[in-house]
Amino acid sequence: TIEGLASVGPSQRKEADVKLRAGSLFSGYGGLSLAVEQVFDAEIAWHCEFEDAPSKVLEHHWPGVPNLGDITKVDWSTVPKVDIVDGGSPCQDLSAAGRRAGMTEGTRSNLWVNMREAIAVLEPKYVVWENVRGAYSASAVSEADREMEHDAGLLGDGSSGPALRALGRVLGDLHDLGFDAEWRGVRASDVGAPHGRFRVFVLATRREDPADTEGG
Predict the structure, then answer these.
(1) DSSP alpha helices (H): ranges in the chain?
(2) 162: closest CA among 184, 189, 140?
């Protein structure tokens, strides 16, 4: 279902016929890992998942692949570097089915900061991020930071809420880390499933010169 990744050509996916290595964060049962394996012709080097039930599923499908456990306790300087980092950071505070607390301090969805730290240390070539439709609209600004934001009406919907949204924060952080990114919303029915579950996918590619901010 990562439709946007299909544009990554074989020459970008491979270097000297060596498989790209991927590290998976917030792995769950491994759905995003399966897509990354197939699209990039990559191999999974490690997972990072702390819940017992999905961890057992990961061990069944990727026997012997290390599971780093709780992302908040990982020292990324000790983790083998990979070419791809993928992850769907927690969606509960972005989803319309949740509290809509946003990607702000103290929320589960703010665990994006741990993924951002992993990316900064591991310096992969590609990042794949997945989340719910609410990433388009959920706040990424706390009440304390609200006065620092531009007027929301100047940037979009004219509401009294903060202008910075979760997806915008992710894209901005990736840009600051030296990546250019594309994103696309995909419904499950777009790829043949009998339901319309919608997900946002981001594909970020490291700039050849991370200092180059043109077009970011």
Answers:
(1) 10-13, 31-40, 52-61, 112-122, 152-155, 166-176
(2) 140
C-alpha–C-alpha distance, residues 147 and 76, integer Å? 34
Angle CA 105–122–184, to nearest 5: 65
Structure tokens at 55: 């961890």
CA gap 94, 86 in Å, rounded: 19
> What pTM does this model have?
0.79
Chain segment 140-191, per-residue pLDDT in tens: 875 444 444 444 444 444 455 547 888 888 999 999 999 999 999 888 888 8
Residue 49 has pLDDT above 80, yes or no: yes
Distance in angstroms (rounded) separating the CA atoms of residues 164 and 150: 9
Phi, psi of 60 (to 5 degrees): -70, -45
Tokens of 103: 């990607």
Q: What SS3 state is found at 191?
A: helix
193 burial via Cβ count (<10 Å: 0-12, 13-18, 19+): exposed
